Amino acid sequence: MTRTGGQTGFRLTARQSVMAVVMLSTALGCAISAVRPAAAQDGNTASAIRIDIAAEPLDAAIRSLIQQTGLQIAYPASLSQNTHSSAVSGTYTPSEALSRMLAGTGLTYRFTGANTVTLEAAPGAADGALTLPPLQVEGQPGVPSQAVVGNLSPAYAGGQVATGGQLGLLGNRSIMDTPFSQTSYTGKTLQDQQVRNVTDVLSNEPSVRATWNDMSYTAAPYIRGFAVSPWDFSLNGLFGVVPGLAFSADSIERVEVLHGPSALLNGMPPLGSVGGAINLVPKRAEVEPITRLTATYASSSQYGAQIDVGRRFGENHEWGIRFNGTYRDGDSGTDHQSQELGDAVLGADYRGDHLRISLDVGYQNQDIQSPLRPTYLATGVAVPKAPSANGNYFQPWTYAHSRDWFGALRAEYDLSDDWTIYGAVGGRQDRSY
What we know:
By secondary structure, the protein is mainly beta. Helix content is 8%, strand content 38%. It contains five helices and 23 strands. The strands form six sheets. The protein has an eight-stranded antiparallel β-sheet, with no helix packed on it. The chain has a four-stranded mixed β-sheet with strand order 1-4-7-6, covered by helices on one side. Strands 10-15-16-14 form a four-stranded mixed β-sheet. The chain is elongated, with a radius of gyration of 25 Å. The N and C termini lie far apart (75 Å).
């Protein structure tokens, strides 16, 4: 037998809209347990604490669980050979964490004392019976389902779209619990398709029609036949924050498209778009550290680089910070045209027992030489032949320049499992010509 033990501020104008919303939202939620040290309590009945254990060899996972919970775990050395644990990340009691960690291993456990545990083979495991891990269908542990900060809906198989999204005053909801038509594209979709900006993501939507050329300086998509201005895109449900002409997607975790009117849920957007609502969910730091550096090449000679760094801090990973920076410059595939874009976006968040706060601040600068714009024909004028794909009818000396500073602050507090009060404020200062 082996036995292991452990211990436990910028200027805003009317055009640069500022918006504050404080509302109550209701939804079926998950219970939140207070976080207390588990070492001094009975491990079978102790309060829930934040636990993070990766999917790894069982011996290493047991050591991590001991360090985080104070349990003493005994088991035959033969049980851990060639055995890997399941990942555990969230707020659990030591007993719940141990159950999840052993899911699928063919092992079970029993408490022999207040904080002592013995591992043993589950009945039937020796006969080759397959033990399936439990199916988890709720949102993030310890966070009510209506919460927005730190509460992304799970993705469907394949990871391209999510099972839910934000619905304004209703908070974060499953698409199966709402009568609205919504599609939420995940960060995996954005990464797999190597999208440059938000409008690239919308090309996946059958209900969205583009009217501007991809090589232009902005876009005005149509949803169900009605124009949706890029100034009416929202950031975590807050209008008037997103850079209006074109927004780089490198700092975005999800793009949520709601089809049809949404003023009852989100309020009336600044320019009154009624065809639908496009909400952008910014990236947040994850439990596992993230450090990514990506080099890019596009069109005829457009080079760039993008950096993505994320870390969480604190005893229970309650503090998080995520930075995304992008720069690309060079000639595009359109004659006489060059494009330059640089941005820096910082996202920070705090996730407590009942209080959650997020802050996003960013800067984006975009310069396009000889940008394309839509061409409209008068009634009765014959439609000309389609021009060459790289043709440019704009003069080489024309240009479009935009510079944006933006920021948003959001706070949520859980009054109970089913009631959350929240407030959000943000703004943007832009200079475009």
